[in-house]
Design brief:
The protein is an alpha/beta fold and 278 residues long. The chain has a single domain, classed as Aldolase class I (TIM Barrel, Alpha-Beta Barrel). It is built from eleven helices and ten strands.
Length: 278
C-alpha cells in the first residue's frame, strides 16, 4: 500500500541527530530513535526530544511498537544525574520523559521515575516536566509515588480502540488505562492528564468517537491522535491511511467535548509537547 502524499516526510538531516547524540554523550536513550519515530529529524532540529529511561528493552510484546523487546536491563542508578546533565547541556525549559514497560520490577519502575523527577526539580526550579508512563499494572501506590514527584503533565496512552487490544496490546487492558487517567486526576488535581492513540489499524469512526468520549470521561485534558506507521516490515501493518480531513473531524469532535486535541497524520503523543502544554 503506497503512502499518500500527505504522509511523505522529508529525510531527517543526520547532522541534527548526531548533534543531539553528541550533546547527551550517547549515554541516554530517546524514544525518538528507539521507536523509529518519523518526526525525529524535525524534532531534533529544534533540539526537542523525548528521553527514555529504565533502559531500551521492553518487557511487553506490543505489535505496533519499534522498541526492542525481551529481557530488560538492570536499572541504572546513575541515569537520573546523566539526564540532569543532558537537560543542562541542551538548555531545555520543558522536558518529556517516557520509559519502556518494566513488568519485571515490583513497582514497575515508578521509584526510578520519581527519583528522576526529583533530581530534575531540585536542579531546575522552573523546569516543566511531562512524563509518559506505563500502566504500572494498576498499582495505585506506584502511580501516587510518581505524581508526588510533581510532573506538570502526566501522559498515558490508550494507543488504540478496545476491540483491537488483543492484536495491538495483548498484555495491556483498555479499562486499566482509563482507570489510571481517572485516578491520576483524583490523586493530583492540578496535574494535567494526557493520552493518545493511533488510527489506521482497522477501527471505524464510531469507535474513534467512543475512545475520545471515554478519555473525556476519565478526566483527560489533552488527547493526541496520529496515523499508525509500521516501524518495520516485521511489525503490524496499517489497514488504511486516514485523511487529514478525517483527522480534523476527530479534533473538532474532541474540542466540542471540551478537550484539547492535537490530531493529524504525523502527530505522536510527545510531538510538540511543549507547544501543546502552553
Amino acid at each position: 500500500m503506497a503512502l499518500p502524499t500527505f504522509l511523505v516526510k522529508s529525510t531527517p538531516k543526520l547532522k541534527f541527530i548526531r548533534q543531539i547524540r553528541k550533546l547527551i554523550d550517547g549515554e541516554l536513550h530517546t524514544v525518538c530513535e528507539s521507536a523509529s519515530c518519523p518526526n525525529i529529524g524535525e524534532c531534533f532540529s529544534h533540539q526537542t526530544l523525548t528521553f527514555m529511561i529504565l533502559g531500551n528493552v521492553c518487557t511487553r510484546q506490543c505489535t505496533f511498537c519499534g522498541v526492542n523487546k525481551g529481557t530488560a536491563q538492570p536499572v541504572d542508578p546513575d541515569e537520573p544525574e546523566r539526564l540532569v546533565a543532558a537537560v543542562k547541556k541542551l538548555g531545555l525549559n520543558y522536558v518529556v520523559i517516557t520509559s519502556v514497560t518494566r513488568d519485571d520490577l515490583p513497582d514497575g519502575g515508578s521509584a526510578h521515575f520519581a527519583t528522576t523527577l526529583n533530581a530534575l526539580r531540585s536542579t531546575f526550579h522552573d523546569l516543566k516536566i511531562e512524563i509518559l508512563i506505563p500502566d504500572f499494572r494498576d498499582d495505585q501506590n506506584a502511580l501516587k509515588l510518581v505524581l508526588e514527584a510533581g510532573p506538570y503533565v502526566l501522559n498515558h496512552n490508550v494507543e488504540t480502540i478496545p476491540r483491537l487490544y488483543y492484536q495491538v496490546r495483548p498484555q495491556a487492558d483498555y479499562h486499566r488505562s482509563l482507570n489510571l487517567l481517572a485516578n491520576s486526576k483524583k490523586i493530583a488535581t492540578t496535574v494535567y492528564t494526557k493520552s493518545g492513540f493511533m488510527v489506521g489499524l482497522g477501527e471505524n469512526q464510531k469507535e474513534v468517537f467512543e475512545v475520545i468520549k471515554d478519555l473525556k470521561n476519565s478526566g483527560c485534558d489533552v488527547v493526541t491522535i496520529g496515523q499508525y506507521l509500521p516501524p518495520s516490515r516485521n511489525h503490524l501493518r496499517a489497514e488504511r491511511y486516514v485523511t487529514p480531513e478525517e483527522f480534523n473531524l476527530y479534533q473538532e469532535f474532541g474540542e466540542n467535548l471540551g478537550l484539547k486535541v492535537h490530531s493529524g497524520p504525523f502527530v505522536r503523543s510527545s510531538y510538540r509537547a511543549e507547544e501543546i502544554a502552553k
